[in-house]
What does this fold into?
Amino acid sequence: MKQILLIYILALLPYLISASDTLSLSQFQEIVLKNHPLIKSAKIYDAIAESYLIKGQGSLDPKFYSNFDEKQFKNQNYFRRWNSEVKIPTRYPVDISLGYENNSGNFLNNENNLPSYGLLYGNINITLLRGLLFDQQRFALKESQLLADKSKVEKELIVRNIITQAFNAYVNWSAAHRELEIVQSYQERVTDRHNFIKQLFENGDKPAIDTMESRINLNTATKARITALENLLLKKQKLNMFLWDNEGTPLALLQTVIPQDISEVNEVLLELSLIIAQNWNTDLIIRKKQIELEQINLENRLEKEQLKPQLDIKLNTIHSLGETALDYSYSINDYKVGAFFIMPIRNRKTKGQIQLNEALIDQNKLDQNYYQLELQNMYQTLNNTAALNRASLKISVEKVNNSSVLYSTEQLKFDLGESSVFLLNNREMKLLEAQREYLKTVKALCLIYNDLYFLKLGQKKPLNPEDILN
It folds into this structure.
């Protein structure tokens, strides 16, 4: 993995230039949105959506047909038949064809005898029963639009999931960094005190037992720092999974890069997570299920058309190009008409498919209702939990302040010789415990706000990286 200072990363992105080595949450978000390979690959869904639309429009593409058939036997031209046609589909139950036919030979069927220069013809095919209201061409057009919309939702789902995971990684990194700062401060105080007590012992002002007590405290602080450092390295490694440069090369933060303070991250996420108007109908999963429901309805509509009799009326106009010379002529009495009729008798295959589709429709609606209820419950639960954690945070702040005052007082008494190492350490451990408790509560709030932000992103339509940045 490429080792590089984040300040260099910011240099690659002029809009992110910072005078310090602090990587804020907003800067981190911009890097992820612009460079993360999964978000970049999500843009492929735009091309997929466009491909579906082109494919759907292809159902209306004109088609050219040409058929040539010839038989020569014992030096005789039995027959030579040539028919070419351009068929033009429409959005309606009407197809139009234009063609040219030229036949010759000694053994042609009478119906195939044509003028020497052939015939031009125009054909109109009209569907009167099956396919009158809905047919395969209209199905293809509508289905392509649904598939394109579904591809866009898939893209939005990827972006939302990556952002949520990235924010969780950042919160864990920031919390781990703050914990290391707390433990380092604790270790520095214990180290200074241990050296001071050793000096007092050497001067004969303290008993040896105090140095032992102090040494135990130092061991505890050192071990706590090692554990906090190990946790920070682990969280930073997980954060690195979201850092990439413009060329798709993974990046790794160095020790000089630090996160935004966890309390500031909490305020940023709180602002991001606010949902002014709840509308769970536009959640990405709901939208995806709704598109799938529309697909099934569309397929069912096409299947129901198959239950109807089929009646197609064909009308051909015939235009002669001349018998002995190229001479175009047309008469309203020259035409060819036809009709095609088919009536399904039992049609169990179609009926079974319709029954299956209706069952899938009912299941999809139940899934939508259930997931929407889940979203509402999740939103309510997160808000309730956030309220409880905010109340707990106030208590934690008060506890830290009081513990700090008690520790400072005990430190003053110790300096005056009116307290012991044991009592001072006890006050210090209570302060450390209060600080960790505060940190745990703030981290929990950040993660709750991130979950709320996840719900909020699902309500934004459309959801694209550019929309989030703006």
Summary: The first helix runs from residue 6 to 12. The longest strand covers residues 329-342. The chain has two domains: 2-35+138-297+352-469, 65-133+308-346.
